[in-house]
Target: Response regulator
Amino acid sequence: MAEHHVLIVEDEEKQALLVQDYLKASGFEATIISDGGDVIPFVKNNQLSLMVLDINLPNKNGIEICQEVREFSQLPVLMITARIEEADRLKGLQVGADDYLCKPFSPREMVARVESLIRRSVQPAFKPINDYFFDATNLTVTINGISMSLTQIEYRLLNLLASQIGQSFDRQTISATLYDDQRVVSNRTIDSHIKKLRKKLFDLTNVDLIQSIYGVGYRLQPLASPVSKSTDSNQQIQINNSADKTQS
Model:
């Protein structure tokens, strides 16, 4: 039995079968679903390592599916889109997709992206960095005893910023950390990731922890005071990605 099970959500049969063939040839178990309305029950009832998700689907589109998945799971999502506009790609990332590919794409590149996302998702858990405790298994960070759920991109971004509190990181360094394949990523895409992470940290701490340094990049400020939402250090709350629905 294959170690990793990938769900392919694609209504174009030839495209779906091509993706499935390449994934199986690379050692993955791969299941195809063509109807967007069938995805959520399948995700909830199966152990999956990743989902390859097309945007244009019957009954429920990929954006809606990704939003719903993020309400209960940090399953890595590789979004597939035929739309080439940057705004469309950003929309997928904003609702919680971990990466994207634009059609037409190389099946070999798709497999490489899948392998990279799965590799990131199985990093060692519970790594303390300064005042932040990172759990790679559940993609959470704990600050002063309170936990917050992150996407894979947000997890890697905060991990980088927290590694050197007060040090500025330029967008090129951030991009190289977030993506393993040396792709060219626009400043707007990096800024979008920063915006989402900044809001989550503010919702958790009531402090604007990420500073923009004009002409340089971004840095993480030291935690000035304990989280004010609760004085009980044992309290665990989840600020999950459903909050992102208000961002667009």
In short: Residues 187-205 form the longest helix (19 residues). The chain has eight helices and eleven strands.
